[in-house]
């Protein structure tokens, strides 16, 4: 793999423009049931204090807040103030008083009272050194506490039946672009070894994806919006020409392809793993 721009991945390549905030929320709808399963598997329950690292516009924090209830607490941290402004607005609209958001990078976050659980979704894949990042997360976890992560396995992307030529082209644009931006395309399947190398005891894990059961369903829309946000990088890296991607017609073309052959598509697979911090409880 040629990594040209590892630092770009660390800076979170997809940016934080309004369109990107909407894409994050759309993507969150697709992954919500899967992430909720991971959080339940990890044992989140009423009364727990939870830290959500790289919380973005707040969706994982909101899922956790339902599980810990009003007797618990969820703190979402993200280094981008703009995403947090959106997260706070959404928490206010839902009148959630046990969720708060703090602008800070994980690296600069002061260690305070330890949390019962530290959770994180779609953040490790952008880190130059995921093991060090997990070690930082562990500093905020009490001994015996649980760390749950949910990440994409991009190598498994492209599960279609029957074969969908346009989807395959999209995939051939996306994978090399992500690799050359330094995004960890195998982060999902590398989670177990990453957590172990950081010093955690891995408990269990699950793999899941959402089917595009109707051609224009949310998983398909999420895929197209992800292509849109990566498009400037695809062009700059010479992976795809704007003409061939033709982003404004891509959704319609993909929908037509799915409709014409009655195909089914799983745009992405997510791996969830949970582990606990060893030590006297
Ligand atoms: C793809 S978004 C995922 C957001 C959210 N976890 C979700 O699944 O909807 C990644 C987020 O991680 C944040 N992030 C990346 N590195 C970070 C770091 N070192 N400290 C804090 N936030 C970070 C980015 O600002 C971005 O909002």
Give an overview of the whole structure:
α3 (59-68) links the parallel β1 and β2. With 281 residues, the protein is α/β, with parallel strands linked by helices. It starts with 5 loop residues before the first helix and ends in a 5-residue tail after the last strand. The model is unreliable at 1-8 (pLDDT under 50). α2 (18-41) packs parallel to α3. It is built from 10 helices and 9 strands. The chain has a domain at 6-157 and 183-209 and 268-276: Rossmann fold, CATH 3.40.50.150. Bound molecules: S-adenosylmethionine. S-adenosylmethionine (SAM) is lined by residues 12, 24, 28, 54-56, 59-60, 77-80, 83, 105-107, 121-123, 126.
What's the story with the biggest beta sheet? Answer: 7 strands, mixed
Physical arrangement of strands within the biggest beta sheet:
3-2-1-4-5-9-7
- What fraction of the residues are assigned to beta strands by DSSP? 15-25%
CATH-wise, what's the superfamily of one domain?
A: Vaccinia Virus protein VP39
The CATH class assignment of one domain is Alpha Beta
Query: What integer value in Å does the Rg equal?
Result: 19 Å
Parts with pLDDT < 50 across at least 5 consecutive residues: 1-8
* Structure summary, number of beta strands: 9
Q: Element order, helices and strands?
A: HHEHEHEEHEEHHEHHHEE
Q: Quick check: average pLDDT?
A: 90
Molecules bound to protein = S-adenosylmethionine
Helical percentage: 40-55%
Give the CATH topology of one domain.
Rossmann fold
| Structural class estimated from helices and strands | alpha/beta
CATH-level-2 architecture of one domain: 3-Layer(aba) Sandwich
Oligomer: single chain
């Amino acid at each position: 793999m040629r990594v040209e721009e590892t630092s770009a991945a660390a800076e979170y390549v997809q940016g934080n423009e309004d369109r990107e905030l909407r894409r994050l929320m759309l993507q969150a709808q697709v992954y919500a049931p899967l992430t909720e399963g991971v959080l339940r598997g990890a044992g989140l329950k009423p009364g727990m204090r939870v830290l959500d690292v790289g919380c973005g516009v707040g969706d994982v924090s909101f899922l956790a807040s339902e599980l810990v209830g009003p007797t618990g607490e969820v703190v979402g941290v993200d280094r981008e103030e703009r995403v947090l402004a959106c997260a706070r607005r959404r928490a206010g609209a839902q009148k959630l008083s046990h969720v708060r958001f703090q602008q800070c990078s994980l690296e600069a976050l002061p260690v305070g009272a330890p949390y019962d659980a530290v959770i994180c979704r779609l953040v490790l894949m952008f880190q130059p050194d995921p093991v060090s990042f997990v070690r930082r997360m562990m500093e905020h976890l009490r001994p015996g506490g649980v760390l749950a992560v949910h990440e994409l396995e991009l190598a498994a992307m492209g599960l279609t039946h029957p074969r969908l030529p346009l989807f395959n082209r999209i995939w051939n644009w996306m994978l090399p672009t992500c690799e050359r931006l330094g995004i960890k395309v195998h982060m999902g399947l590398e989670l177990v070894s990453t957590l172990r190398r950081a010093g955690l005891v891995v408990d269990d894990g699950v793999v899941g994806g959402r089917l595009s059961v109707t051609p224009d369903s949310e998983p398909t829309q999420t895929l197209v919006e992800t292509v849109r946000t990566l498009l400037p990088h695809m062009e700059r890296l010479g992976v795809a020409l704007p003409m061939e991607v033709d982003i404004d017609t891509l959704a319609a073309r993909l929908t037509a392809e799915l409709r014409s052959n009655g195909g089914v598509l799983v745009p992405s697979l997510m791996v969830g793993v949970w582990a606990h911090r060893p030590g006297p409880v």
